[in-house]
Specification:
The protein has about 575 residues and is α/β, with parallel strands linked by helices. About 40% of the residues lie in helices and about 25% in strands. The strands form four sheets. It has a seven-stranded mixed β-sheet, with helices on both faces. The radius of gyration is 29 Å and the shape is globular.
C-alpha cells in the first residue's frame, strides 16, 4: 500500500507538471487543487474534472502520453466475445474497465478509466489467470458502452447455446435454416438487442450481412456505416427469420427480395422500422430503416436553411398553384424537406392530401395515402383519385414515371400546389429530366414553380472541432479569400471519436422565372439554365456548403465530398 501511495504521489506531481507545461492548467490552479487533494483524498484527475478545469478526454490524452499507453476509443472498438466472458459485467463495472481482446502470450487487453489502479489490475489478473495489458478510455465511454457490450454478447451467447442444443451438435446450418427456429427466446433477445442498440446509437439503418463464416451487423450513424457486432453464420437463418416474422414477411421465401414493416417501442420511443431482404450467396441480407418520429427533424427551422433560403422558400410556398420539386440522391433528406413544407402549409381551411411509398411520418390534419402496388394502388391511380377529393395542396412522394408526371402537371395547371421529389443531381437538371420522361417543354415551363436540390453534410462536433486556416491554393481554387478560417474534425467521447455529431442540409434553390421558362421552352442544356439561375442569385450546392464551412458548421472535406462544383 505504501508503494502505491508513493507511486500515486509521483504520478500526481508529474501529471500536474505536465498539465501546466501543456498549457491546460495554470500554476495557481494546480496549487489550489493539490492543496484540496491533501484533505479530500481524491485523485488529482478526479478533482480537476469535478472543478471543470479539465475534460475527461484531455486527462486521458495526457495520461496516454505520460504513461506511454494507448488511448482507446470504444466507439470504434469491438471487444472480443472471449474477452468479455472472462470478466463478469458486475466486476467490469466496479473496476471501471472493459475487457477488449485476448492477445498472444496469455495476455488480456483491457481499457481502464484509471490505468494506475494496481489493485484492479491485480484482481483481473487473478480472476482470469492472464497477464493484463492496459489501455486508457474515459469513464463516460466505459460506463456508456458496458451495457451495450455485455447485453449484446449475453444475447449472442444464449442464442448460440440454443442453436447447438436444438441441432444436437455444433454443425453448420444450411441456408434454409433447418435446425434453428425463429421463435427461440435467445434469438428473440439477440434481435431485440440489435434493434435497441441501434436506437441508442441514433442509427438511421441497420445492415445484417451474411458472409462465409460470420454475419456482420453494421449501423449507419450520421450517414456513415460502423461495425457493431459479428456473430457466427449458423445463427443467421434464425435471426433473419425472426425479423421476417416481426415484419409479416413470408419466411419460406428466400429466393426473392421482400419488404415489410415493424413497429416497436424501446427506450421510451416509438420506432417504425422498414425492412428489406435481399438474397445473397450466403443467405439473405436484411436492411432495416429506422424512423423515429419523436426525433424527426421535420420543421423548416430545423433544416439548416440560411435566412436568404428561408425567405425564398416562404415566397414559393405562398404560390396558389404549380409544382415544387425537391431533388437529390437517396438519403439526402428530400422527404424531411417536403414534410417540413407541409407542416407549414397545414391549416384548418386547407385540404392537403399525400400519396407516399412508404408513409414515413404521420402528420395530424393531413390525409396520407400509402401506395399498395399489389392491390393496384399505384402513384398514378392514387393521384387520379386525389384529384376527385377537392384538394388544395398535393404531395406525391416521388415522380417515377411518365403517367405520374403527367398527372402532377395536370394537377398544377388546374389550380393545385403540387410537391414532389425527383432523382437529379442539381436543380437545373429537374426540368431536363421531366422533358426526357416525355412531358412537353411548354407544360414543364408553365407548371414548374421552383426546384430545391439538397444534400446532407455531417455537422462538426462542437466539443472538439479545431480551427485552422485554409491553405492559400485551396482557398483560391474555391474562390475564397486568402486567410479564410475553417474548422476540422478531431474526435472525442461526445461524438464517439468521429469528429461529427448530427447532420445539416445544404441547398440549391432555383425559382423558375420568365427567363428560365424561356430557356426550358427552347430546350437548352442544363448548364445554360444553371448559369442563368446563378446570375439571378441562385447559390449552388458547393457555395451553400462553403457558407457552412465558414460558419463552422461542417468541414471543408465534407462539403467537397458531397458536391461536384
Amino acid at each position: 500500500m505504501s508503494q502505491e501511495k508513493e507511486t500515486n504521489g509521483q504520478f500526481q506531481f508529474r501529471l500536474g507538471d505536465l498539465l501546466v507545461s501543456s498549457g491546460l492548467l495554470s500554476e495557481e490552479d494546480l496549487k489550489k487543487v493539490l492543496s484540496e487533494q491533501k484533505y479530500s483524498k481524491k485523485r488529482l484527475g478526479e478533482i480537476l474534472i469535478g472543478k471543470q478545469l479539465l475534460s475527461e478526454r484531455q486527462l486521458a490524452e495526457v495520461l496516454s502520453r505520460q504513461l506511454r499507453i494507448p488511448l482507446i476509443s470504444l466507439a470504434r472498438y469491438r471487444p472480443m466475445g472471449e474477452a468479455l466472458r472472462l470478466v463478469p459485467e458486475n466486476v467490469a463495472r466496479r473496476l471501471e474497465l472493459v475487457p477488449l481482446a485476448i492477445l498472444d502470450n496469455n495476455r488480456l487487453m483491457v481499457a481502464m478509466a484509471d490505468p494506475l489502479n494496481v489493485l484492479a489490475i491485480d484482481e483481473v489478473r487473478i480472476l482470469t489467470g492472464m497477464d493484463v495489458e492496459v489501455g486508457i478510455a474515459t469513464p463516460t465511454e466505459i460506463f456508456r458502452d458496458l451495457d451495450k457490450f455485455y447485453q449484446v454478447q449475453g444475447s449472442l451467447d444464449d442464442a448460440m447455446v440454443e442453436v447447438v442444443e436444438s441441432s444436437g451438435s455444433a454443425v453448420d446450418l444450411d441456408r434454409d435454416g433447418k435446425g434453428a427456429t425463429a421463435d427461440d427466446a435467445p434469438v428473440v433477445k439477440l434481435v431485440n438487442s440489435i434493434m435497441e442498440q441501434a436506437v441508442r446509437e441514433a442509427a438511421s439503418d441497420i445492415h445484417i450481412e451474411p458472409f462465409e463464416k460470420v454475419t456482420r451487423v453494421r449501423y449507419r450513424v450520421d450517414g456513415s456505416l460502423f461495425d457493431a457486432i459479428d456473430f457466427p453464420r449458423k445463427l443467421h437463418p434464425a435471426v433473419s427469420s425472426r425479423i421476417k416474422i416481426m415484419a409479416n414477411i413470408d419466411i419460406s421465401e428466400k429466393r426473392r427480395p421482400q419488404d415489410g414493416r415493424i413497429l416497436i417501442k424501446t427506450l421510451n420511443k416509438n420506432i417504425d422500422l422498414r425492412v428489406s431482404t435481399l438474397p445473397t450467396i450466403y443467405g439473405e441480407k436484411v436492411v432495416l430503416r429506422l424512423l423515429d418520429q419523436s426525433s424527426a427533424m421535420v420543421g423548416l427551422e430545423k433544416l439548416g436553411l440560411g435566412p436568404d433560403d428561408r425567405e425564398i422558400i416562404d415566397d414559393i410556398m405562398a404560390a396558389p398553384y404549380g409544382i415544387i420539386l425537391v431533388t437529390g440522391p437517396t438519403g439526402s433528406g428530400k422527404s424531411t424537406t417536403l414534410y417540413s413544407v407541409l407542416e407549414r402549409l397545414s391549416k384548418p381551411e386547407v385540404n392537403i392530401i399525400t400519396v407516399e411509398d412508404p408513409v414515413e411520418y404521420t402528420m395530424t390534419g393531413i390525409n396520407q395515402i400509402q401506395v399498395n402496388e399489389k392491390a393496384g394502388l399505384t402513384f398514378s391511380e392514387a393521384l387520379r383519385s386525389i384529384l376527385r377529393q377537392d384538394p388544395d395542396k398535393i404531395m406525391v412522394g416521388e415522380i417515377r414515371d411518365l403517367e405520374t408526371a403527367q398527372l402532377a402537371v395536370r394537377a398544377a395547371l388546374t389550380g393545385h400546389l403540387v410537391l414532389s421529389t425527383l432523382h437529379t443531381n442539381d436543380a437545373p437538371s429537374a426540368s431536363i429530366r421531366l422533358i426526357e420522361m416525355g412531358i412537353a417543354p411548354f407544360l414543364v415551363s408553365s407548371s414548374l414553380l421552383a426546384v430545391v436540390a439538397q444534400r446532407l453534410v455531417r455537422k462538426l462536433c462542437e466539443e472538439c472541432k479545431q480551427e485552422y486556416v485554409i491553405p492559400d491554393k485551396t482557398a483560391e481554387d474555391l474562390g475564397l479569400p486568402k486567410g479564410t478560417k475553417a474548422f476540422k474534425p478531431v474526435g472525442c467521447e461526445v461524438c464517439r471519436g468521429t469528429g461529427y455529431k448530427g447532420r445539416s442540409g445544404i441547398y440549391e434553390i432555383m425559382k423558375v422565372d420568365e427567363d428560365i421558362q424561356n430557356l426550358i421552352l427552347e430546350g437548352v442544356a442544363g448548364h445554360r439554365i444553371q448559369h442563368e439561375a446563378i446570375r439571378k442569385g441562385m447559390r449552388s450546392l458547393r457555395d451553400s456548403g462553403l457558407v457552412k464551412v465558414r460558419d463552422g458548421v461542417t468541414s471543408l472535406e465534407e462539403v467537397l465530398q458531397v458536391t461536384l462544383y
